[in-house]
Amino acid sequence: MTLPRERELRERLRMLAWLLDSSIPIPGTRFTVGLDALIGLVPFLGDLIGVLISSYIVAEARRLGASRSVLARMAFNVAVEGLVGLIPFAGDVFDAAWKANQRNVQLLEHWVERPRHAERASWAFVAMIVLGMVALAAVTISLTYLLLRWLVS
Length: 153
Hints:
The protein is mainly α. The chain contains seven helices and two strands, in the order αββαααααα. The chain has one domain. The longest helix is centred in the C-terminal third of the chain and has 38 residues, at 115-152. The chain starts with a helix and ends with a helix.
């Protein structure tokens, strides 16, 4: 059972996510962007401000007691948005489509409704990210070894 204060906080987070990700309709289309995409148009500083605002949602999820795996998944969403957002223009388009804040609020809602299911799904996601990083490192090391071997011979 959630307390009224927690429900109000989650509602504020939903509203913030909507404001940041989907509050501005693009005329003639069914697409929307938010203030985060507009802020992100300012090179580097806009992306930094966007990441800081997005981190507020993650911090509030932590205060509500979300598990580490859910928080890690939320942090991943913010990191992807922040890193890809650094790429001029393409990063801004990605940011408008990725909608990390709404993804994170959905993760939080899912965790509130079904904590065990959300934690299992988030741990599986984190495990896939770790495996992907290990595979990338292995491929990089292998290619470096082959390149050095080719250069030496």
